[in-house]
Each structure stands twice: as C-alpha cells, then as structure tokens.
Request: fold
Amino acid sequence: MVLEKITQANDIKKVGKAEWSLLAEEIRAFLIDKISLSGGHLASNLGAVELTMALHLAFDLPKDKIVWDVGHQSYTHKILTGRMDGFDTLRKYGGMSGFPKRGESECDCFNTGHSSTSISAGLGYAMARQIKGEDYKVVSVIGDGALTGGMAYEAMNNASRIRSNFIIVLNDNNMSISENVGGLSKHLNNLRTAKPYQEIKTGIANSLSRIPVCGEGLVERIRKTKSGIKHLLVPGMLFEDMGIMYLGPVDGHNISQMVKAFREATRLQGPVLVHVLTKKGKGYRPAERHPARFHGTDPFNIKTGLPLKKRVKANYTDVFSTVMCKLGERDPSVVAVTAAMSDGTGLKRFHNKYPERFFDVGIAEGHMATFAAGLAAAGLKPVVAVYSSFLQRAYDQVLHDVCIQNLPVVFAVDRAGLVGSDGETHQGIFDISYLCGIRI
Reply:
C-alpha cells in the first residue's frame, strides 16, 4: 500500500507521481471504511482528496500555513500529517477531533468549526509574517458554500491591501461562482501567471508611475482599459476587481494541474485566488448521488449507504418539521428562513410544500436575522430555523433589528445543549444565557 509510506508531514513528497492516483484511491477507501464505523463528514472529505494532496505536495508543513474553512474537509490533511491511527477515535471523547485543532498537531495552524473564517485568519498570518520579517507561505482554503458568508468578503476587501504573497484556494464543488470557459481560460492563465509576464507588467507600471504629473494617471487609465478587456475574456473578475489575482478554473481532481497552479501562485506578489473545481462525495456512489445526506453521516453500511441504526422515535427536528408544515397550511403569512441548513433544521418538507415561502440565505446568519426582521416588519410571520451554535453569529442583529423593534420573529433553535461528537465549536450551551440578556 502506498498509504503505508505516510507516517508524518511531507512524506507525500516521497511518493512518485505515478503513484499519486493510487494513493488517492487508498485514502478514499480508508475514509469510507473508517467513517462507516464512526460517522463523520464524508462527502466533503471525499471531494477534497486530490486538492489536499496537491497542497501537501506544493507546500512544506508545518512551516507553511494551511487554514481550512470550517474544517470538515480536513480528514485527508490529518492522514497526510501522520494521524491515520487517530481515526479509530475520530469524534470520540478524548479522541481525534473532526476539525483542525492547534493542540492536536503543529500542522493545524488555526482552530476551525464555523464557516467563512479562513481568509480572515490567513490574512492575519500573512500580515504577521510581513511585520516579523518571516518567510513562509500562507494558504486559506474556502468552499463556495462558505463564500456566501459576508465575513469572507470583508476579509477579501482587506486582503487587497497586502503586498506580500497570500493564496486563497476556492474549493468549488457546485460550479456556483464561475463556469469553466475551457481552453481560453487555460491559455490566459498560463500567460498571466508566467514569471516573465508578471515582471514585465510590474516593471511597466513602476516606470510609468515615475513620470512627473501624469504618470499615475497613465497607469490607472491602462489598468481600467485592461480590466475592461478582461471582463469579456477572463472568468473571476469579481476577485480581480477587488484587487485579488484570479487563477482558474483548475480541475480539482488533477493533482499535477493543481500543484502547477499552486506553485505559480506562490510567485505572485499580493493576494491570489486559485479556483479549483471538485465533486463532493467523489469516489463513493451513494455520496455522489446524495452529497447532502453524506455531508455529516452516522455509521452506515458501505455496500448500501444506509444508516446502520434506524431511528424509531421522532426527535425535536422531526416534530418541528411536522408543525411547520401544519402552520404553513393554516396561515399563508407564515414563512421559513434558514442559513444553508434546510435539511438539518427540518425545513425540507416545508420547502417542498411552500417553495415561495421558504428562504435559504446561505451561510449568512447575521443577514438571516435582519432579513427575517424585514419580513416581519412588512406583515409576515417568519420562523427562523437555526442551530444554537450558529445563532451566536447573529446576536447583534437579533438584539438591534428584531428585539428593539419588537418584531414577531420566531427563532426555532436546534441542536441546543451538549451535542457530542462535533466538539466545542458546535456546542449549543450559551443560547439561554445570551438571549436572556435581551429585554424588550
């Protein structure tokens, strides 16, 4: 087995290129086998196998820093940093966490568990490196789902100011940001990331800017003209217009392509985003067909993909789902709002029955609360279904936009209390204390 060669960080560099695909297969088989017994995040990890391998081939850990957004796709990263034996205790008390933990390994540079944080944290590392005069690479990995969170855009807005290298990897498993434009994109990428081109572009800009009186204006005029042309030809202009160099799309299951793109990205000064296209659940048919169901799964039968344990009693989420459907039938002013958690919070049935009254705002809890306040102010009766741990992210909006205006918004708080295997980032133990502090 190729996987047996991996006992510590950077061992993957000893694996020959001819064995990369075999290693990816072995990692997937290992993950399916282990998660079928322990439960965990399966589909997201299966989709990121080659991406993670490419990152470990292109960078040196723990010197270089890889910041994972949320972290539910970090299982391959744990395998490649010598923690394969820890999967027997995955997500168990005293065992290996299902998310990156600084206390678990030097290769985990930042604790994660909630969404849309990786660019902010990575930018912090990059600025600290610049101030301290240190020499290492910083890579923030973020998914297209996490990119729906406003915090990611706040971070990108700030990232445009940095002058040293900072790499953002967009793991896009749903084609939701940019369509692949094929050969033209590949050609332009090769041109724009080539070292001579970058040197020429920088040299021309520096030379023109030194011309008295009109130099800066010339540079700005050329830049605007160039951007206008690129709007017609180049994907990713959203990022380019924010001051972030865009590379991609890159096949997220082609290790050679990704290693090349990452190495080219390290040659650029300033922030650069590498857009990688992956398939969630890749390599396991049930997870490919039902990626949402296998995002976070209980132990399951590998052959059928079905859970090993059948639920006999209805839980809180089941009851809430039934009640919401009944309320929707009785009162046409009842609407449902969630933040990318329609399945987990039990709103899927309501969505199917009343699609025009269902709103999934993406991973944007603050917006979710204020949006619901707007619905209520306009005469509707919004019910916001949200996990306890994620409601914390909307505290200010609950206070200012809902409660101070005394608006009738119902917050249906799911996963409250000690929720077990996902660890401290997902424990819903503060909701009563911080919500009771709000008085109308």
Notes: The domain at 3-180+235-289 is CATH 3.40.50.970 (Rossmann fold). The CA atoms of residues 56 and 83 lie 14 Å apart.
